[in-house]
Amino acid sequence: MMQELRQIVFQHPEVLWGLLVVPLLVAWYIWRILRRSPRMMLSSTAPLRKYSTSWRGYARHVLFGLRMLAVIAAIIALARPIIPNYESEIETEGIDIVMALDISSSMLAKDFKPNRLEAAKEVAKDFIESRPNDRIGLVVFGGEAFTQCPITIDHQILTQFMSDLESGLLKDGTAIGSGLGVAVNRLRESEVASKVIILLTDGVNNSGATDPLTAAELAEKFNIRVYTIGVGKEGKAYSPVGIYPDGSFAYDYVEVRIDEALLEDIAEQTGGAYFRATDNASLQAIYNEIDAMEKSRVRVSTLPKPIDRYWWPTALALGLLTVELVTRNTILRSMT
Prior knowledge:
The chain has 336 residues and is an alpha/beta fold. The protein has helices at 2-7, 21-36, 46-52, 55-78, 116-129, 155-164, 176-187, 212-221, 260-270, 280-293, 311-329, and strands spanning 9-10, 81-83, 86-93, 96-102, 135-141, 145-152, 195-201, 224-231, 236-243, 249-255, 273-277, 297-304, 307-308. It starts with a helix and ends in a 7-residue tail after the last helix.
């Protein structure tokens, strides 16, 4: 309480000049009492001492004192006492990001836990949650490509789309150029200063009508940085090699083939970077690194937001007036 009192300032300090009226009212009150007091010659004042020294003899002055205190409190309330407080307002300039994710059957390889696709989805969802100020979209590709979710600030619906992804939604294959081209198309009309594509694949471009380097040229033209991620362990991985009649996949160990030279060229041409993920931990580390490199710009401004304390003296003034009126009209009614 004492600390708050020391912090109090007044929004309308000029109103405090009204306190000068209080000594004038006191002077007027004393003058009125002296003017009204009858004067008479007595041989002795002993008979009057009992009355003049009783509590009732002083009570009427207490009533006036209560009213003056109420006036003081009311003037202080009108001066609007406040405790200065400052609130930070954060203005952000986000980044538009499109995540281009390979969902071909090879993404079901089990060198990641539980497989490449599920690992990529979980890490991508963590990345989305860590970027609350950015608009993010999702493009998926296999033998062809399409937009799963346009760029949006509604990350809840985006993560739901991400969760629903599964291999088999598209014809099989790895159309890196098509995936990159669709992602560029989602961003080319964006007006933000920073535009990014994160392209994740585990294979070699073998489908689609769009050449990956042509798509990279378009990305460069529209000032879009492309971060490319190749997923797959070194050597062989336990991967789908066929489909049984019941629709389930047959697995065997096959050589991991990622066109790293192509992915490096795409990243270099667009000002991005290429990464290789060989397990869940390294994939998470890659997304953390991209997150650190692509920070949204944040501007913090401090705005005054004062805390009103006028109700303190207002309550005091009302309380004093109530006590004065109740006392005047009950206990001291015969005195006033």
